Automatic annotation (TrEMBL):
Protein name as annotated: Catalase
Annotated source species: Peribacillus glennii
Cofactor: heme
One GO term describing the cellular component: cytosol
Binding site for heme: R73, R113, F162, R359, Y363, R370
Length: 682
């Protein structure tokens, strides 16, 4: 039975194959298959005459072009995606009857889309923003969508406020500025007047909002869901994606510069990693809570502005997802994919989280306008791997050709087919939660603590991370023109921590608070990136090298760092090849003009026997820029003199040495650390 499921689950690639078209070596046709004899000139009445209406090829080509663009997503417009597979480690039968979480031998196809929230499709990718992390599981029971973010909480508690939030954070309507940025008056005015956002703002202004890579950020389901097992017993559940490479970020100055140097930085990183076979991996974790324990905490477990601290409710790792194939066509797959938190399978159900409840409506509503009608499920990227049968008919973009005269339930002409399935046959049955109460527009008293977990987050940060948060507040509010809004934010975050509010108040011309603060002293080590996994794998190192380098030793070092999973890329003053003193040649990947230190995780400076003044100056720039972003820098041979000229010899994360083996181990260790915050000037 398991083998049959494996075949069924993995037919997504086969299903997509019928829609793939390779035009190489083919003759041009119209969309109806008619071969085209001319595609350079429209049909005219004489060489200099008017174009004729009967030119059906021109009209088809132009009409299709005119309609190539669909409305971009209102939020999460800037996204990139990849295919992969998921395997559960051990059966989760005790907690859920979802079949894709039962058999460790079954590989379930997945499609994952990463995105920013605020920016348009043309915006840069390294802006300060929440990142979407949406996963579509193509299971044998139907599609299951885990639609989350890289931050486990959200700005608001009730979905009715979502349009207000997005209106506030989007470019201001009177001048359509700024793009993909929260550093402006309307956003911070919203925050000051909607203080449930306090916890989310702490995450948003932390390093989590500027990830180094999609491969190095966590994903969260955000909401509280339910697992339901075969006996009908339910557990509350929260979902976590844990990146195998750990959680790492950019620094703010670096993120801004990358936006100009390479606005596609994050998608390029994902694409190239998959192409090189460095497949991104994420472990799926769940926090499980028995229903009888719902009220045993000092926070409401249904509040989407609250986390379940991992030290109180541990994360159980249950499986791994591997992204192993890039898309064939960004529009057909990444842009047309339609996610929806309401796409569930038996064994996964909802909670009464009011933000989740609203999302269950809005996602379908959004797809209707973006994808032109109710048949978006028939697009290849959205089609389930299992067959689907119902009495839905017609509409824009219908591809299914339904046969027979009956399209209603109940019926006798077709033997009452298609008929509902019983629970034993796999029919979805909603969890029978008892619900009663008066119709009311209100919010539970248990949702009204807005500052305790914001304080928990602050308490849990390392000193460096705290400094980055202060800098982020200072930058964001430094862009706010309204002094009253700036002061309101200072007063608001004094409830989180007086020292925090006072530190950025001084920077933005506001009055520092004299009292306030939270009584919360608890910390959660899981919240600090300082405690993440640190390894050299897939780190990109810019190797600055000139002619007449020491061939044998340099090649040995490059081979050594590659053996540790580090990816060296050669940078020199011109493309082609650089030649060593022993005749060794290295192909140049980038010039100083086409590369930049912000695009690398580390630098390895080699130099050469003789370099031009420009080579010298460019190398010094690379070193100083990388050093200012706390990156590891290694140097051997002629490269050591550049460290001396730059005045950084002996600094943290700066490695040099004549012994190759000692240099290799020390340099790889420095690369693994990612940043060397000892250089931080506070």
């Amino acid at each position: 039975m398991a083998e049959e499921r494996k075949v069924d689950s993995n037919n997504k690639n086969e299903q997509l194959e019928q829609f793939r078209v390779n035009d190489q070596g083919q003759k041009m046709t119209t969309n109806q298959g008619l071969k085209v004899s001319e595609d350079e000139f429209s049909l005219k009445a004489g060489e200099r005459g008017p174009t004729l209406m009967e030119d059906f090829h021109f009209r088809e080509k132009m009409t299709h072009f005119d309609h190539e663009r669909i409305p971009e997503r209102v939020v999460h417009a800037r996204g990139f995606a990849a295919h992969g597979e998921f395997q559960v480690y051990d059966s989760m039968k005790e907690y859920t009857k979802a079949k894709f979480l039962q058999d460790p031998s079954v590989k379930t196809p997945v499609f994952v889309r990463f995105s920013t929230v605020a920016g348009s499709r043309g915006s840069a990718e390294t802006v300060r923003d929440v990142r979407g992390f949406a996963t579509k599981f193509y299971t044998e029971e139907g599609n299951y969508d885990l639609v989350g973010n890289n931050i486990p909480v959200f700005f608001i508690q009730d979905a009715i406020k979502f349009p207000d939030l997005i209106h506030a954070v989007k470019p201001e309507p009177h001048n359509e500025m700024p793009q993909a940025a929260s550093a402006h008056d309307t956003f911070w005015d919203f925050v000051a007047n909607n203080q449930e956002s306090a916890h989310m703002i702490m995450w948003h202004l932390s390093d989590r909002a500027i990830p180094r890579s999609f491969r190095m950020m966590e994903g969260f389901g955000v909401h509280t869901f339910r697992f339901v097992n075969d006996q009908g017993k339910a557990h509350f559940v929260k979902f976590h994606w844990k990146p195998v490479l750990g959680v790492h970020s950019l620094v703010w100055d670096e993120a801004q510069k990358i936006s100009g140097k390479d606005p596609d930085f994050l998608r390029r990183d994902l694409w190239e990693s998959i192409e090189m076979g460095n497949f991104p991996e994420y472990e799926l974790g769940v926090q499980l809570l028995a229903e009888e324990d719902e009220f045993n905490f000092d926070f409401d477990i249904l509040d989407p502005t609250k986390i379940w601290p991992e030290e109180d409710i541990p994360v159980k790792i249950i499986g791994k997802m591997t992204l192993n194939r890039n898309v064939d066509n960004v529009f057909a797959e990444t842009e047309q994919v339609a996610f929806h938190p309401g796409h569930v399978v038996p064994g996964i159900d909802f909670s009464n989280d009011p933000l989740l409840q609203g999302r269950l409506f809005s996602y379908t509503d959004t797809q209707l306008i973006r994808l032109g009608g109710p048949n978006f499920h028939e697009l290849p990227i959205n089609r389930p791997v299992c067959p689907f049968h119902n009495n839905q008919r017609d509409g824009y973009g219908r591809q299914t050709i339904n046969v027979g005269q009956v399209s209603y339930h109940k019926n006798s002409l077709a033997g009452n087919a298609p008929a509902p399935a019983t629970e034993a046959e796999g029919g979805y049955v909603h969890y029978q939660e008892k619900v009663e109460g008066r119709k009311i527009r209100s919010r539970s008293e248990s949702f009204k603590d807005h500052f305790s977990q914001a304080a928990l987050f602050w308490n849990s940060m390392s000193q460096v991370e705290k400094e980055h948060i202060i800098q982020a507040f200072s930058f964001e509010l430094g862009k706010v023109k309204s002094l009253s809004v700036r002061q309101e934010i200072v007063d608001m975050f004094a409830h989180v921590n007086v020292e925090l509010a006072a530190a950025f108040a001084v920077q933005i011309g506001a009055t520092p608070p004299k009292e306030g603060g939270s009584s919360v002293t608890k910390t959660s080590p899981a919240l600090s990136q300082e405690n993440t996994i640190k390894m050299p794998n897939t780190r990109k190192v810019g190797v600055i090298i000139g002619h007449e380098f020491n061939g044998a030793e340099v090649m040995s070092i490059l081979a050594g760092i590659q053996a540790e999973g580090v990816q060296p890329e050669i940078v020199s003053d011109m493309l082609g090849a650089v030649k060593g003193s022993d005749g060794t040649e290295l192909a140049v990947d980038h010039t100083f003009l086409t590369a930049d230190p912000v695009l690398f995780d580390a630098l390895y400076i080699i130099g050469g026997a003789s370099e031009s003044k420009k080579f010298h100056n460019d190398t010094i720039y690379f070193i100083k820029e990388a050093f200012s972003h706390f990156k590891p820098i290694g140097a051997t041979h002629e490269g050591v003199k550049y460290l001396e000229v730059s005045g950084i010899v002996g600094s943290a994360g700066v490695v040099q040495g004549e012994d190759i083996n000692e240099f290799l181990s020390t340099f790889v260790e420095a690369i693994s650390a990612h940043r060397h915050w000892e250089r931080q000037v506070v």
